[in-house]
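Q: What would this chain look like folded?
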Amino acid sequence: MLQSLSVQDYALIKDLEMEFGSGLNIITGATGAGKSILIGALSMILGERANTDVVREGASKAVVEGIFDDADTDRIRTVLSDNAIDPSPLPRIILRRRITERGSRGFINDTPATLDIMRTVAGELIDLHGQHEHQSLLHTETHLRLLDSFGGLGSLVDHYRKKRSRVAELVREREALAARERELRQQKELYEFQIEEIDAVDPQPGEEDELRAEQRVLENAEHLFASTKELYERLFASNNALHDQLVVSRNELQDLARIDEAFEEHVEEIESARIIVSELANFLQDYNAHVEFDPERLQDIRERTTELETLKRKYGGTLEAVLEHRKEIGEKYDLAQDFEGNLERLDAQITEAQAELTDVAERLSQKRHEVAARIEDAILDELSTLGMPNSQFEVRFTRQEDPDGWIVPEDEDASYRAFQRGLDQVEFFISTNVGVSPRPLAEVASGGEISRIMLALKTILAKSERLPILVFDEIDVGISGNMARRVGESMHALARYHQIITITHLPQIAALGDQHFKVEKRVENGTTKTTIRRLTEDQQATQVASLISGEDVTDAALKSARELMAAGEREE
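A: My prediction, written as structure tokens:
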């Protein structure tokens, strides 16, 4: 539920606070009072694009904030989590939009959010239909979405889309492979030559560093032999070796420690030094004994490094680049060697993926036909309630044959195009007159009829699944009299399932509101401002009466208004 809407410095609104209630929330006001401005402000927190001109003259920014409760859905939690937005206020959520001359920023629970994220979250909370938005029924792509929504087929549609994406991926892979065929065949001999040249040398990862290290040792063998021998003698083997001096010094410190304990720790230190010198001397003696003088091995290393340098100059400058090149041309060569086999394997994978796609598409289509039968009956019942008892309503299905289509039923000699949402194209057909065959909805329905059909759809959808808050901006255009009363009763019934916020100019609808707000425009200190206030029951009666008789409310109009309101209470 939308608990409250706060608007500051938006168009003609300086400072506005609205607290909505459950059920049917009615908004009325004179033409030009600013009702459309209010809907425009609400659309800002739904993620609609903002025109910087909406900032009230003299103000630096406009701010619109909506507080919602009962917003704890799996989809909202996922979106918040994926975008590092604090979910802790749930089930309450706050959407805010700030607009300045430089642009606008959106916030969810005080965390900055892109318009796409705001639209996603708001789409789980609120469904806004503007004065002309019910005209979406005239676009056939809307019909399939409404059918799927009524049948709760969203998860099956998602499953279909995953299967379709898999086929698309495989088809792109095959097309790319086929496009490379000529290139691969032309380059095959070159790849073969390069592979043989690299494999003849057989470079190994890290080999260069190992060879350079070994080469340095062999080139400096004489120096290594002489130096290690001299160091060993200096440390251990000469008459005045460092090891012997450390032994004598340790013994003297031990004598001193018997006199003064302060020398004890230094005895341990000099003993450690003696051990280190002894171990180093052993290493030097062992190293010296194994120094090799191997001119042949040195020559082999020099020849090997020359081979590696030749490969590096030709294939990338580094040994790593040579190895990467070998890997790439090896894959291309293998592909060229068995090009037909690779195409056949891809074809087999595509055939299998198409079979899986076809299975899901046909199951989805079957479900849709079952749902269509239910929706036809439900729509006719609602249209009868809304004053169209002689209507005929049909959901018609078509498929588009395509010789290259991805959907290939086993029992048919045809293939079909795989659309984004499935195999089917759906269109609503209607007739509102006896003896007239149903025709496409876009061709036959008047403005008032479209409004009632949209209301009928929303009503049956609301009874079949959880829908967001519904906002109607004068979708009752084109109807009046007894028909308006029926529309109001249907809207009032729909409000038992959901919070409804509606802008209306019809007294038959306004009289049924659980809460009633009046939008007014006034001039203060030379500035035009739009304000809104919640009406008491008596004020609501007066406002409904003004919709009946105009600004000069008559006693008869007031009596009629109270009768309309009382009738609505009896229906409850």
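The two ends are 21 Å apart (CA to CA).
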